[in-house]
Amino acid sequence: MRWTWILALLGVTGSALSDSLEEGRRYSFDELYAIGLKHNLQVETARIGVEGLDWDRMEAIGTFLPSLSLSTGFNRSEQEIADYQDDDGSIVTLPQSIKTEQAGNSWSLSASQDLFKGFKTWSDYRQASLVRDEVLAGEGQAELQLRHDLLKQAHWIIAKSELLVRDQELLKQVEEQHRLATARFEVGAVTELDVLQTEIDLGNQQITVERSQQDLAEAWDGMAVLLGLEPGGMPVLEMDLETFEPTWQSERLVEMAEETRPEIATGRRNVEIARWATRSTRSAFLPTLSLDFQYSRFSNRQEFGDLDFFPENNSTWIGLNARLPLFTGFATTNAWQHSKADERRRQMELAQERRVTRAAIIDALRRLRSSYEQSRLTAKNRELAERSLDMEQERYRQGLATLLNVQSARATFREAEAGHIQQQLDFRDRLAALELSIGRKLTP
Question: What is the pLDDT of residue 14?
């Protein structure tokens, strides 16, 4: 059964650029969830963390590639030498000047490639990839938490809306009873006290309706905060609040949680990150091997008097370098021991998370089944209370019952109605809690 609830809502429209819900438009829960995905603060914060992940991954990949460098240089010098001796050895009065100019340029290209670093390069890459996966999973976890919070708030709103509808129906019944009491008083069938009592009941019911409207508005204020929107608007929400018998088996749900529960996935990644960190620190005990290459070119032009020189030099160097750490003051051993301890701690945390998950699923499923059984009882109580109220109202119209009988039946019906709605709300909340503990939807 699908109910239509007319609600006072503040929020945003379904369009991507709007910031408020359209007045009178019908919204499904999926539409509200889509709006929350666009505007919810926690989801937006998770998305910001995803930005830049590609370059983090590229940085990790870059550790496998060779490093290249290019250098260049240029120089120029001039020199003039004065000589008072002629070529034949005689001394001259005016000196002879000899001008020397020198210009040169050079450039070199160097490359270095790590061939073996004790698996440190691969370990660093795997850690970067796992961290990237964790950040990406954070966005999915934020969306899952948003769905859970929106479901709880939507269920609360529906309960408040249904109570408002029932209070408005009771208000019409009280108005009819007041009209009937007034008419019977005019013909002398009842006393003025009966009329005054129905008038008091009418005022009390009007106050109850006003409070129900205020409660509904406050509930939608909470929904707007979750959606990341401003208050305002009066849309229509369509959502099913019916209960059903849960037939899932706890062991099957635990198997599903192993695949989809975010906390377990995070625990597995933390164990993997710690394992690769241990390998990375352990690689410091191993030798490293690298291949280096350098090519350089140098040219120099000199003018010495009437002579010009243009020497050019080229050089190429290739080297294979190996390094074996013998003693590092126990720093490497200390880092390795800390990494192993962290790995063991992560493994124990994952095992504990699996136990917590199993207990949470079993408890949530047990509570859900209990809530379903209770909802069946409250539905039966509501049906009986409604029949009792209808019978007392009919007897009052025929003059066979007093106003006190009608008031008592009405109070009993409202209590049974509120109890049934609360039980339906409790069932849906427990279903949402079960889905959150598993990490996925269980219903379409």
Answer: 38
Could you tell me which of 127, 421, 76 has the C-alpha nearest to residue 280? Answer: 127
What is the pLDDT, as a whole number, of residue 28?
A: 84
| Token pair for 243 | 């209960």
The DSSP element (H or E) to which 67 belongs, if any, is strand 67-85
Cβ-contact 81, 100 below 8 angstroms? yes
CATH entry, 3-66+117-285+328-438, from 3.40.1190.20, 1.20.1600.10, 3.20.20.70, 3.40.50.2000: 1.20.1600.10
E strand segments, 117-225: none
Cα dihedral value 22, 27, 30, 32, nearest 10: 40
User: Is residue 185 over pLDDT 80?
Assistant: yes
Contact 297, 257 (CB under 8 A): no
Amino acid of residue 359: A
3-class DSSP assignment, residue 413: helix
Considering 268-277, 297-306, 318-327, the range whose residues carry the highest mean pLDDT is: 268-277
pLDDT at site 5: 37
Q: What is the mean pLDDT of the chain?
A: 80
Rg (CA), the chain: 42
In terms of DSSP bridges, do strands 236-239 and 312-323 run parallel, antiparallel, or are they unpaired? unpaired
The angle that helices 29-39 and 192-227 make with each other, rounded to 10 degrees, is 50
**pLDDT given for residue 305 in this prediction:** 57
Residue 47: the pLDDT is: 75
Neighbours of 235 (CB within 10 A): 23
CA-to-CA dists, residue 350 to 269, 271, 346, angstroms: 10, 8, 6
- The structure's pTM equals 0.64
∠ CA 201-205-210, rounded to 5°: 150
Contact criterion met (CB below 8 Å) for 137 and 262: yes
Report pLDDT for 21: 62
Q: Report the number of secondary-structure helices (H) and strands (E) in the chain.
A: 9, 8
**Residue whose structure tokens are 């069946």:** 376
Alpha-carbon gap, residue 260 to 254, rounded angstroms: 10
pLDDT of 390 over the 70 cut = yes
How much is the pLDDT for 249?
93
DSSP label of 21: P
Helix (H) or strand (E) holding 322, with range, is strand 312-323
Contact assessment for residue 200 and residue 181, using Cβ atoms and an 8 Å cutoff? no
